[in-house]
Every structure is written in structure tokens, then in C-alpha cells.
Write a structure and sequence with these properties.
By secondary structure, this protein is mostly beta strands. The chain has 2 helices and 8 strands; from the N terminus they run H-H-E-E-E-E-E-E-E-E.
């Protein structure tokens, strides 16, 4: 190497503030070789509004998650109750400014029930009052892309979207149906460790 180029490289390295601080033994300023403390990513608990989640970080890039959701709503046909349990797999990418993009897949079991309609209610459909009518079960499966944003060191917000295939079967009549839908999902969580 040319001596003038070597001298220029040495001057450039010596004038770097982080390198100079490390050489001087100043612990208050990070050196280029010091790494940030690792963010907690092993176990997280969270909520999605109508349910909760448990996330397990398998590696820094891969995570698995269990979600459980339930809701009920009154309607003219009776009380509708829904229950969904799903498993998700995440593949995280490089974090930039506390935002970590990811891709993933999800599979879910769904169950709904219809109850509370009385056949003597004016305008009521007598078929709806039969025991078990309106009870459905089925599946949902899809892929998604989104991001995890670190609000604080342990607190995160997730948002993702993607296409899902859904299929349901009514238990009393055996009627079934399937459809494609575009699903948006958001969650807030806390990494425990």
C-alpha cells in the first residue's frame, strides 16, 4: 500500500469520534465495536381488542404465536357468538428505526353459534328457533405482511394485512361455503423477556 494512502486512512480513523473515544477509554461514548443491548424477543403477551395473544420467539428472525378471540353480538336473528383460535408463524427482517417488517402465515379454527330467538316472537323465522340451527364451524388460512413497531423497549404495536381463504359448515343442515377475504390485523403487546 502506498504510504500516503496509509497515512490518510490512519488520519481518517483517528479523527472518528467513536474510535477516538474508545481509544481514550471514555466509557460514556460507544465505540464501533460495542453492540446495543439485545432487545427482549423470547416471550410476549398482547391483545387484539377481542382476544389475546402469546408469542414465542424461536430465533431472532422466527417466531410462533397463538391467538384466541371471542365475541358476541345481538341481532334480529338472536345472539351470535363467535370463537376463533389460530396459530401464526412470523419471519422478521432487519429492524430500521424501531420498525421491524415481517411476513407470515396463519391457520385458524372458527366456531359460531346462534341462540336466543323465540319462535313466538313476531316476525321470527321458525327455522331459526330450531336447536342447533346457525351453529357453524370451519377454518381460515392465509398469508400476511406487516411490521412491528417498538413504542418502548418492551412494548410493541403490530399491524399486518393479507389474503385469507375461509370455509364454514352449518352443523344442522350441512350447508357449507367458502370465500376469499382480505384481512387487516392489529395488536399491542409486551415482551416479558
Amino acid at each position: 500500500m502506498d504510504p500516503s494512502k496509509a497515512l490518510l486512512l490512519l488520519v481518517a480513523l483517528a479523527s472518528s469520534p467513536n474510535w477516538a473515544a474508545a481509544e481514550a477509554g471514555d466509557a460514556s461514548k460507544p465505540s464501533r465495536t460495542q453492540a446495543r443491548p439485545a432487545e427482549p424477543r423470547r416471550l410476549a403477551l398482547g391483545t387484539m381488542g377481542t382476544g389475546g395473544l402469546l408469542r414465542l420467539g424461536l430465533t431472532p428472525r422466527w417466531a410462533g404465536e397463538l391467538r384466541v378471540q371471542g365475541a358476541s353480538q345481538s341481532s334480529q336473528e338472536g345472539d351470535v357468538r363467535a370463537f376463533v383460535v389460530s396459530a401464526r408463524a412470523y419471519r422478521f427482517f432487519t429492524e430500521h428505526y424501531r420498525c421491524k417488517p415481517y411476513l407470515g402465515g396463519e391457520g385458524a379454527y372458527t366456531k359460531t353459534s346462534l341462540s336466543g330467538i323465540q319462535s313466538n316472537t313476531p316476525g321470527a323465522n321458525p327455522v331459526l328457533s330450531q336447536s342447533g340451527f346457525g351453529d357453524t364451524s370451519g377454518f381460515a388460512a392465509g398469508v400476511f405482511g406487516g411490521f412491528e413497531y417498538r413504542v418502548l423497549r418492551r412494548v410493541f404495536v403490530d399491524a399486518d394485512a393479507g389474503p385469507y381463504a375461509m370455509g364454514l359448515k352449518e352443523s344442522r343442515t350441512g350447508t357449507s361455503g367458502s370465500a376469499w377475504d382480505f384481512v387487516l390485523s392489529a395488536a399491542v403487546g409486551v415482551y416479558l423477556f
